[in-house]
Specification:
This protein is α+β, with helices and mostly antiparallel strands. It has one domain: lipopolysaccharide transport protein A fold (Sandwich), CATH 2.60.450. The chain is built from three helices and seven strands; from the N terminus they run αβββββββαα. The chain has a seven-stranded antiparallel sheet with strand order 1-2-3-4-5-6-7. β3 and β4 form a beta hairpin. The longest helix has 19 residues, at 3-21.
Length: 162
């Protein structure tokens, strides 16, 4: 699985959350949410976790403690983390000035600030972009954990040295 496919899955999960937004009232917050997506055979494709989703007056959703897990054949193939993100379901746009971390089997992508455009399926990390290939340092991040809730990802060794 490459990072583009991870970003597309992330986008779909945000779309699922947006569908729930139609029934929400401005200022209302959902705490500790988990939003799974299943394929046509009933197998788990991905799960979106978050600490909070706050529905804003303009129709957008402020997400905190975002974590997305993507699955293939019952195994986690990617995890995406960000502390905060704004999502506009009407325009299919997500953006943040915060840090993002995408962990896949052989790479870790990190950076500050990101934008996702659901119309053209484009995902962009704005600055301080870092790609670590053959990311054995984070291989355990993809391993199943007893606590699969939202939270902060483990930091890669090279990042903790800075």
């Amino acid at each position: 699985m490459n990072w583009r496919r991870a970003a597309l899955g992330w986008a779909f999960a945000l779309g699922m959350l947006a569908a729930a937004a139609g029934a929400q009232v401005e200022g209302q917050a959902v705490k500790g949410f988990r939003l799974p997506e299943f394929d046509e055979d009933g197998k788990l494709k991905q799960q979106l976790y978050g600490e909070t989703a706050t529905f804003l007056q303009d129709g957008s959703i402020l997400l905190t403690g975002l974590k997305i897990e993507m699955f293939r054949k019952g195994e986690v193939t990617a995890r995406i983390y960000s502390p905060e993100c704004a999502y506009d379901p009407n325009r299919k746009l997500a953006a943040s000035t915060n840090h993002i971390r995408i962990v896949v089997q052989k790479a870790v992508l990190t950076g500050d600030g990101f934008k996702w455009n659901g119309t053209n399926e484009q995902f962009r990390i704005d600055q301080n972009v870092r790609v670590t290939l053959d990311a054995d340092l984070d291989a355990d991040v993809l391993a199943p954990k007893p606590d699969a809730g939202a939270g902060t990802p483990p930091a890669a060794a090279e990042e903790s040295e800075e």
